[in-house]
Fold this protein.
Amino acid sequence: MVAGDSPAQISGLPTWLAPGSRVAGYLLERLVGVGGMAAVYRARDERLGRVVALKLLAGDEAVRKRFEREARAVAAVDHPHIIPVYEAGEEAGMQFIAMRFVAGDDLQVIVTREGPLRPKRAAAFISAVASALDAAHAAGLVHRDIKPSNMLVDVGPGRPEHVYLSDFGLARGVSSVGRLTMAGQFLGTPDYAAPEQISGKTVDGRADQYALGCVAFTLLSGGVPFKREQPMAALYAHLSAPPPRLTAVRPELAAAVDDVLAKALEKSPEDRYDSCGAFADALREALGLDPYDPGRPPAESSLRTRAQPVPPQHGPSTQSMSVPPGHMPAPQETGTWTAVVSADRVYYDSLHPVSEQDSASMSFPAHVPERRFPLSGAEIRIGRRSKSRGIEPEIDLTGPPTDPGVSRQHANLVPGPGRGWSVVDLGSPNGIQVNGKDVPAGETVTLRDGDRIHLGAWTLITITRG
């Protein structure tokens, strides 16, 4: 919601709703926010003398039903981290909800103002909201719009911060179906939407867990996991792109944090944690923090993921492995290394073609299926296959679709001591980057689990050890 708008700017609400107006026994003191379907005022309940947040409807009949559903949804779940509803009703053709007034900012405002949060503070917010979501799911509700701006932080002298989950306007029953509007507009927030919600599949509490994982990434990094200029590009990334590594921007955090977030952000709901609380507990464990509820049974280990061994391959191969997009195996004793090839929109958007010819040849593909290449035996060549020149790279990036920036002999992956691997650029015109840093031609860079190699116009190769 946007604070500070005047009543005249609220489409669908009478312009006379200025401070001093009265609605259903509530004296409006000031406008504090405007959303797509409602305005929120700080108001005073003249019967009890307490301050409330009064939410007033602005919308058509479909929006009215969502508004009514929000009141019922919140009232159905009694939880200390779900913002309580005092009253809901209608007066003079206007619907209203009176809720607790939270004297603080939402988490989006806090992160925008302060940047990435300290791990202990971020985990405290995530654990509290996870507890609230598990309670909502137990009551048969899925929130479906989890994002930092729907998490309100109450503050006051002499007491700790207290976070409330708000805005149940999109809440529906467990195992409901994700939907688009008649105009194709996505109902939710693109930066935090689960793949199944985007694609219109069955939605349950694990969709909220995915969104909460995105929120955790935001609180700890200061940005969203899939930053894109266009909302549709963000939706596509949730469907197909692997999640970024948080440690790339917070290298002081343990690598186990990446594993926990990767599991919460699995494309398939079946591969995520059993509950939001289990995810929050695993995150706390990875951050080296005490359990949120010491009396709760130990959470599923943050390092345990679905077993998915990848058989070794010998010789040239471009066969895709049947692994869900975005799956990042956790460390195991086998020490098997894999090169995961995908497309990176952020990298593509950062490039600046040096000529019109280059610009015309560079376009981001509509869809690139993730491919996985086990690393075993001798060195692995990366490039584009050429029958006429007898070039048969083990990691063939010819296509489809072709990345125009990949050379026929672009780079090599070289095995080293201790079953590790290194990468060396072969002097290609476009070069390579490892974790965002240019690699001089001929220089060998030792690779670690999770390192990212960029080459060409949009190709990303993530090195994983499983």
Summary: The two ends are 43 Å apart (CA to CA). Residues 1-11, 170-186, 300-334 have pLDDT under 50 and may be disordered. The chain has ten helices and 23 strands. The chain has three domains: 7-100, 107-286, 337-465.
